Amino acid sequence: DSGVTQTPKHLITATGQRVTLRCSPRSGDLSVYWYQQSLDQGLQFLIQYYNGEERAKGNILERFSAQQFPDLHSELNLSSLELGDSALYFCASSASPRRGGETQYFGPGTRLLVL
Amino acid sequence: GDSVTQMEGPVTLSEEAFLTINCTYTATGYPSLFWYVQYPGEGLQLLLKATKADDKGSNKGFEATYRKETTSFHLEKGSVQVSDSAVYFCALMENSGGGADGLTFGKGTHLIIQP
Questions:
Q1: Are residues B45 and A104, on separate chains, in Cβ contact within 8 Å?
Q2: In the structure, what pLDDT confidence band is assigned to residue B29 with cuts at 50, 70 and 90?
């Protein structure tokens, strides 16, 4: 158990809908990362937050957004969903945004299926 | 941009066989390197890491050495067990510069160990 929790575990929705994925980081971790794992794209970094503020963006679509709240939990919002958004979404956390080998701890993921 | 290349498999071995999973990378700077493992239905777990050239990461009988001259970080284990069956991901994170803090992953290698 990494200490990172994600809800829900599974989510089934229809095209055009909007969903929210939730992540709680390990106790004491200030940095949260979101990743998408799909069969065709593999594991891709989406976005990072540190202590409530956006720190870095990766391959995140404009239809997707995220935020980190004062209690440090984070939410990833996916809107106008398309079939291709079906994937496993992981949240990870680390103690700080200091670069240079900082270990990221991953949650169990949320499996999204768009029908 | 940064990239990681690894053999995708599946790689099938008999129990107690020697394991090598190759990983090479392309990066603009001098990254930290990681191996993560994903067991069926679970999130990613850090297996080992190395933060600078010639460092050797090791854990649970697995080893990998950071080779700057060949830009490689091959994963090895002397005697594999059935319980090692999983998907293994090689990843990097830049140590400096203004880029994102997210991990760049390879496609993953599916390892199957037969009794």
A1: no
A2: confident
